[in-house]
Every structure is written in structure tokens, then in C-alpha cells.
Design goal:
This protein is mostly helical. It contains ten helices and three strands; from the N terminus they run βββαααααααααα. The chain has three domains: about 5-100, Winged helix-like DNA-binding domain superfamily/Winged helix DNA-binding domain (Arc Repressor Mutant, subunit A); about 105-145; about 150-200, no CATH class. α2 packs across α4 (about 85-100) and α8 packs across α9.
């Protein structure tokens, strides 16, 4: 097989033509690094190596872009990368970023949990569910949650003040608020206890 043309494309890619026909688009830097020049004869093995190297580089570039915006759990990052890249490239990328300390499930779990408490005002049950969704290991979830001291009633008050204080004057609004709080993992007893404070005030 002979490389007959290489044409620049968007987003750092180049179109590779083999034996006069378009073959595929690969990372331009990888083509240069592997000396894929016009006129060069290449084997199937060399082309396969170039494809894998190109995909791994693009995968790492995408991962770095994602974590530059916010922290990710390992599972969350792999799931996002898997939409565009091979399983092997995604796992290799996550492994490498883990080695470099750029992703760390323990650090992520604690930061994410702090946001769930201070911004979302979730219950312990709700926090556990959110951490599971991010792919955090059960033992790590137990460790992180055991470090917490969550006042569930105070969390409920924060949510009511933020979203539901105005609707507690009628039964429909009370049901709406109670159902929403239950979906966040709060117990019926805690919900009823806190809501009674607001209903009594209105009456």
C-alpha cells in the first residue's frame, strides 16, 4: 500500500489517501511522528499501529479537555470517552490519568459529596445514590459517608426555603413538596417534622 496524499482537515485531523483513494482521517501529529509521508509504502500492521496511536492520542486530548472543566470519576470519564473512542483507548487513557493523579475517585467522591451537601442539600441516602451513579466503589462510598455528620432536618429546611416555602399553604403544595423531598432520599418522619414547622407558621 502506498500513501498517495495527505490533506489537512479540521480539529487537527488529516485525511489519508492510500493507492489513490481516501482511507480515513487520523491525527495530524501522529502522522508526522510516525513519518507517514506521501509516497511511502506501508503495511497493514503499520497502518493499524497508526490508527491505534491516533485514537489513543485523540482520546487523551478529549479527556484532558473534559477534566479541565471539572473533576470526573474514573467511570464517568470512561463513559464519556466511550462515545467516540474504543474501549481499550478509554481504559488506557483513564489508567494514565490516574497514574498522573489527574483523576482520583477518592478525591472526586469527597468534593462531589461536599457539593451534594452544601448546594443540593441531599440526604445520606441521596448522596449514596449519586455516588453509585458516578461509579464510586461501595467501600469508598461507606468511607466518605462515615466521615459526614448530616443533619437531615436541616437539609430539608434548606430545600424548603429555596423551593417550596411559598407552596406549603395548601394541601396540593404540601404533597408536591413532600414527594420531591422523598425522592431526594429523606425519611417521611423527617419530612413531616420539618414541614409542620412551616405549616404551623402559616396557620
Amino acid at each position: 500500500m502506498q500513501i498517495t496524499a495527505i490533506e489537512p482537515r479540521r480539529k487537527g485531523l488529516s485525511a489519508l489517501y492510500i493507492d489513490g483513494e481516501f482511507a480515513l482521517k487520523l491525527d495530524a501529529e501522529v502522522l508526522i511522528a510516525l513519518r507517514f509521508d506521501v509516497g511511502r509504502e506501508i503495511t497493514d500492521e503499520e497502518l493499524h499501529e497508526c490508527i491505534e496511536t491516533s485514537q489513543l492520542k485523540r482520546c487523551k486530548d478529549k479527556a484532558m479537555w473534559l477534566i479541565s472543566y471539572r473533576d470526573h470519576s474514573r467511570k464517568e470519564l470512561i463513559d464519556k470517552l466511550r462515545r467516540d473512542y474504543s474501549e481499550e483507548s478509554c481504559i488506557k487513557t483513564a489508567d494514565r490519568l490516574g497514574e498522573l493523579g489527574l483523576i482520583d475517585d477518592s478525591r472526586f467522591a469527597r468534593r462531589y459529596t461536599a457539593d451534594l451537601i452544601n448546594i443540593k442539600h441531599l440526604s445520606e441516602r441521596g448522596i449514596r445514590q449519586k455516588l453509585r451513579e458516578k461509579g464510586i466503589d461501595r467501600d469508598l462510598i461507606d468511607e466518605v459517608v462515615d466521615e459526614l455528620s448530616i443533619d437531615e432536618e436541616e437539609q430539608i429546611r434548606a430545600i424548603i426555603e429555596k423551593k417550596y416555602a411559598r407552596v406549603l399553604s395548601d394541601e396540593k403544595g404540601q404533597r408536591r413538596a413532600a414527594n420531591a423531598l422523598a425522592r431526594l432520599g429523606f425519611s417521611y418522619q423527617d419530612i413531616k417534622s420539618v414541614m409542620s414547622e412551616y405549616i404551623d407558621d402559616i396557620e
